[in-house]
Design goal:
This protein has about 325 residues and is mainly alpha-helical. The protein is built from 12 helices and no strands. Helix 4 packs antiparallel against helix 6, helix 4 packs antiparallel against helix 8 and helix 8 packs parallel to helix 12.
């Protein structure tokens, strides 16, 4: 039997409605969504405290590369801008609804925006610790204070991409249109979100490599990764509940930065946790390791053995 286009559309609508949760189920899911949102907000927000506290206790950023806080600072600037626009810009919200007719409400909540503002503030604090004079610290030996050239190149390329997208939207003259597939301000927000994704992917890599070369996680707070892992899992769960409430899983692709952040953070959190507890062994996070010394201070517990044996371990 061949159906007309109108009947096919009606069949799709009926099929979708059949999977929409009941009113009671939606109320329960709404509560679950809110709880997950504030729990991940709490976990991710708390994850920004251990690293600057560790740096302050050690009065040094030794072992902690500046690539991570620099990309975090730019990345959360992008995150805060994008979530704020999705929440409060009628133009962008209208364009989003036009492109996602089945789920016109962006899966962005106020706790996303609040988290972004809080994270940005602490990114500024952490990055400022690479200027020890601001904190009354001494310039320690072997402390890296400038991001790598590859990191700076990736950052410059991302910002260039956003600038090009803005130029396309501005030149089209239809940036504020609510319908169609023409270049719109929504595309600029998407570009900003993808910048956050790219920076999130790369920001962990230099630190992972540095830990591997040193065979140590000294200077890198594992507590922040444990909290980050919890936040990533809860963020992903909230996004899944959001999409289930609307019976439309395109909400996942409609909010790529949130989906991507959750998965990327979970992956790298597992890597750091493995490095710290399995490969290289826990460290005393209050102690500053003397890389030039040939002695490990066992009595004070500055470094303990890993769960897996390895050879040629530097001291």
């Amino acid at each position: 039997m061949i159906l007309s286009p109108q009947h096919e559309e009606l069949a799709r609508t009926v099929s979708r409605c059949a999977h929409v949760p009941t009113f009671h189920a939606q109320e329960v899911m709404l509560i679950q969504c809110s709880i997950c949102g504030w729990l991940y907000f709490t976990a991710w927000s708390l994850s920004f405290y251990p690293q600057p506290i560790l740096n302050f206790q050690r009065r040094s950023t030794k072992g902690f590369l500046p690539d991570f806080p620099l990309l975090n600072l730019v990345g959360f600037s992008c995150y805060t801008i994008s979530t704020g626009v999705f929440l409060y810009s009628p133009v962008v919200r209208g364009q989003y609804a036009s492109r996602h007719a089945l789920s016109p409400e962006p899966t962005v909540r106020f706790n996303d925006f609040a988290f972004g503002v809080h994270a940005w503030i602490w990114c500024v604090v952490v990055y400022s610790q690479f200027w020890p004079r601001l904190w009354g610290w001494d310039y320690g030996k072997g402390v890296k204070r400038h991001a790598g050239s590859l990191t700076l190149g990736i950052l410059a390329g991302c910002l260039l991409g956003v600038a090009i997208t803005i130029a396309f939207v501005a030149s089209s003259g239809k940036g504020s249109d609510q319908g169609g597939n023409a270049w719109a301000w929504l595309d600029v927000i998407y570009a900003i979100q993808y910048v956050k994704l790219v920076l999130t992917v790369w920001k962990y890599v230099p630190q992972v490599v540095a830990n591997y070369k040193r065979k140590s996680t000294m200077g890198w707070s594992i507590v922040q990764q444990l909290l980050d892992f919890s936040g990533g899992a809860l963020s992903l769960l909230q996004l899944l509940i959001d999409s289930a409430m609307q019976a439309d899983w395109s909400g996942l692709t409609g909010n790529p930065v949130k989906l991507g952040l959750a998965n990327i953070s979970l992956l790298f959190d597992i890597i750091f946790i493995t490095q710290h507890y399995v490969l290289y062994g826990p460290v005393d996070e209050k102690g500053v390791r003397d890389e030039d010394a040939n002695v490990i201070d066992v009595d004070h517990g500055r470094e303990r053995e890993s769960l897996l044996p390895h050879t040629n371990r530097p001291t």
